[in-house]
Every structure is written in structure tokens, then in C-alpha cells.
Model the fold of this input.
Amino acid sequence: MGKTLFDKIWDNHVVSNREGFPDILYIDTHFIHEVTSPQAFNGLRERNIPVFRPKQTVATADHNVPTINQHLPIQEELSRVQVDMLTKNCDEFGIELYGLGHPFQGIVHVIGPELGITRPGGTYVCGDSHTSTHGAFGSIAFGIGTSQVEQVLATQCLLQQKPKRMKIEVNGELQKGVGAKDIILYIISQISAAGGTGYFVEYAGDTIRSLSMEGRMTICNMSIEMGARGGLIAPDQTTFDYIKGRKFAPQGEEWDKALAYWETLYSDDDAEFDKILNFKAEDIEPMITYGTNPGMGIGISQNIPDRNEFDKQEQQSYLKSLDYMGLKDNEAMLGHHVDYVFIGSCTNSRIEDLRQVANFVKGKRKADNVTAWIVPGSKQVEQQAKEEGLDKIFVEAGFALREPGCSACLGMNEDKIPAGKYCISTSNRNFEGRQGPNSRTFLASPLMAAAAAVTGKVTDIREMI
Amino acid sequence: MATKIFKNIESSAVPLPTENIDTDQIIPARFLKATTREGFGENLFRDWRYDSENNPRAEFVLNDDTYSGNILVAGKNFGCGSSREHAAWALGDYGFDVIISSFFADIFKGNALNNGILPIQVSEEFLQSIFTEIYKDSDASIKVDLEAQEITLIPTGETAKFEINPYKKACLLNGYDDIDFILSNKDKIEEYELRRQYV
Done:
């Protein structure tokens, strides 16, 4: 019987599989950042052991970093301590750090791909649930906890139970104004925030195939929001073209060898999945979330569901969520006022996202009631935006183009949405307080966010393009 | 760091029937700036526990003296969202040894087990029975026997078996951790690196 893409990569990385034990899985590259690593390094010190393969670890500072005046010392003391500790740990244990001020600094899931570190067939982990992003290249990538960060630092391996395999196929042509973010928000709204738990998802179908690498990363990024351990997409010419020529991509003979291997990375026709789901691209509208988990989303022309659509146990959590959001069931989202617009995060801060937004807002002006932030995913994205003159378009439209980092996705730095305010955000989570205590988040695509910035309210992008 | 040894318990429980409790609620991001594993318990469920002036919210269960114990009983899909292990540290630091739900998010489940906290998945019906009994009598106790992989709701005598990976069970019962195990296979890792196909 044939193998799924996931099985091919997994099996290729099993160091040992002893009966009754989880597999020992070899990790090609371990990404670390300042928030989930300090306790892991302390653990190594307590055990008095070194980092096993320091050259296979890549570090950056992203969660805590300010997005203005990055050339100055970090003002917030605890953030500064955490970022300084990462620098100290990397120095002591011999790890390459792309810290503040480095031309490669940025959100960990943005810099891996753009530097050519993330490649087909590899295994990638990071103490961050959105590590699933790297699966867009046809790799196994998933988020881990700090004890596991310590494990990988100590051994370059992880003890893992092999998850089940799911295939999600999307076929057909997308409507105008509908993109990768809408596809993934739609899928999660259909299967719920727990619909992928226990599975690793392969996304397939001609709609997925037609996406750029940036779009594929957006899809895989949010796999965790349906509970899946990760998501992946078989590599193809789009993937190879994206990687070729990047800083750490293989070159010359190495490239040819790599490519020959990458071309074998697909699910065989007779491969078996534990679950298969199919969706039609035509059914997908521009999406928006109304609630406090990413599964609570609707097509923009629809109303928030009626409470009676939920059973008694679910209804309580549902109404709690609407109460937090200051919304009612059966209400329309269209026309709801917006106070903040955040375009950024590891979901939508890549150059293609910025280009798309710039292209839309060119010659337009943001509404007076809206504060609009654009936070690029990396120094390289920021640089490229400037080279292409996108910065001027943003400034003329009244948007603030800030410096790279995780920013208002989770508000570990100063970029927080005030209590009670509404933010339409391109990030991946609308949890209570995610963007700041008592803040309220509507998740949407970069285009939907840009449209809301211009009109000052939730707007159907299809009517503006 | 070796995992703490898990001991069988019999305890009253704290009910939190909300579904999809994400790790941002268990420990909000602004409390992740510590560089040690200790002290997260005081900020467990911070924004549900305290208002913006830091006054305890009387309606939240952790502020209600009626309920106590080292078992937390929660609605389905507990621990979804961020991979932050700080959530498990906060629950452990506060004093919970067992979390019961009808469904756990994967990363949270792993993080809990790696910190000596036992996540027990029960059926939706059993979960509802537990809530019913706790609300009837807040002293209603639950017995957890890890060796036998069995959970008993004392007032009704209702019992269920629960699943746990045999390896993780051994780790919990003996205080082993994964690093000890993987490092005992160091020769295999080095062997693998020599035959590694991936370029």
C-alpha cells in the first residue's frame, strides 16, 4: 500500500520505534524565541549538558519586541530581561541568533521560509503553536512546549506518538476578493476549533495548488486553530521556485540532489487517510469571526447564528462568548464599527500580504475613527516594502507601518487593543483578551481588514474591488 | 528536570464547565515574561479571576470557597490555542494535579503530562454526571487511580477507565522524564545522523 506524504517524512525521521514507546523523531531544525526557551536552557544547566546540535537551532526575538524604535534599548523591563536572556543563552550554548538589529530578525515563522531554512521533507519544531506554518513547504512542523524545547536542545529529537492523518481537499475557483485566509477560516468554521485534534492534516485539491507560498503558509499556519498538530501541502514547482536562491537554500549540485528528493514528496494515489474532508471553493465568501475562538466565523453576508442552533451545554459557552464580544445572536456583522485594524502576525505579515493591502488602499484614506497598524513579519519584509514604495502608500492612506514582531497578535509588547475596543485583525486568534485585556477581535483577511480601515466598519470587500 | 511523581488521589473538585478554554485564558500572554517555571499560579485564569482593578470576581469559581480540591473539571476541548507550557505550570503551581474533560487539545495534554499533571479524558455523559454531582454537593469527591487507569465518582459509584500512553504512565508513576529516555538512546541518534537521507 502507498504512503501519505506525512508518513514518508515521518518514517524518514524515526530514530527508533520500540514497542510500547512513542517514536524518537529526529528534528532537522529547531527554531527558538525568547518566550518559551529560558526555562529550557535553565534545565540544560541543571543537568549540566550542552546543546546537542547547536548548528541545527535558529534563534530570533519576536514575541516581546517593540515595533517602534527598535534601535533603542527595550523600555519594558521584563521584555528586555527576556530578550537579553535569549542573547546570553545563545552566546553560552553556541546558537546563531537573529536578534534585534540583525537584518534577518523577524517572526520565527516568517524568517524560516524567507531564509530558505524551511524546506520540503524536513522536520521543524518550535515552542510556538504556529510552527505548523512551515508545513506549507511539504514538511512536518509543529509547536511544542518548553519541556520539549529542552528535549530538542538536549537531543535534537522528540518523543512523539504518531498522529492520525486527515486530508482536506478544496477544489474549484475562488470568488473575487476571497483568499487563503478566507479558505482556512471557512474550514475551521465548518469543522470547529477542535475538529482536527489528534490529526496531522494534508491540504490538497486544485484550489490549494493554485495558491502562492504565502497563501499556503497562511493555511498551514492556522491548522492549530482547528486543533490539528500541524498541516502540510505537497511541494511542487511553486515551492521549488520560492526556495531557489534564498540565503540558506541548497545550491549547485546540492540543489539538484535536494530537488530530486523533493519531487518524491507527495501522497501516493493508494495512500490511506484516517479521515477525508472535501470543500468547494465557490462556497467560500470573505470570512469574519464574531466569537472568541477561531471556529466562530461566518461568511460576511451571513448573520451570527441563533442560540437555538446549539445544544444546551454548548449554548452556555456560546452566549458567554457573544457577551464578551458585545454582540447578539442573529445579528449581522456587516456594518459593525471597528476601532483598530491590525495587519500583521505570522499568519499575514508577508510581502504578498503587504502588497495586496497597498494595492487596495492606494489613493484611499483610512476612516478617522480607525487606528490602523501594519506590522511586517521580518526586517527583510520591511526592507522589501520600502524598496517597493509600499511604505509611502501606507503613510498616505493614514496607516502606521511599524517595525517587525508579533505585536498586537498577542500583545506581549506595548501594542495592545484597549478594553472594549473592536479590532479587525489578520492574526490567528480571537480568544478573550488575546490582543489586550478585554479587547475584542474580529479575524479576517488582509483585504477585509484594509476595507474596514477605509470605511471604519466591517465591509464586504467584494463591493469595493 | 525530573517529573514529579504522580500519586493516586481522592479529592473534591472545582467545576469549570466552559468549553474551548484556551491557554490564553489559563495564563494570559502578559504573564509569560518570567524566566523560571515558578509562581504562575497566582495568575492562573487571571482575567476570569480578577477585574481590571484587580478585585476578585465573586462569580468566578476559584473565588468561591464552596469549591476546592486538586482536581479541575472543565468543558470540552480544554487547553486549545497557544503551546505555552506556562498554562500547565500555572495549573500545577495553583495546586491542580488532575484535569478532567471530555476532550483535550494535543499540545496541552503533552505539556500537562510532562509536568506531572494528569489529564483524564472521560465521555461527555460521565463529564456531565461529575458536574451534576459537584453542583449537588460541593464536597462530592472523585477518586483517581493511575495504576488501574480508573476514575470513580464517589457519590454515585460511577467508574470509568481512561486511556494513557503506557510510557507516559510509567514516567508519571516513577518521575522519569523524556530526556533521560532519549539520552539513553544517544548511540541510535548518532547512527541515524550518519544514514540521514534528508538534504
In short: Chain A touches chain B through 77 residues (CB under 8 Å). Chain A has a mean pLDDT of 97. Residues 77-93 of chain A form the longest helix (17 residues).
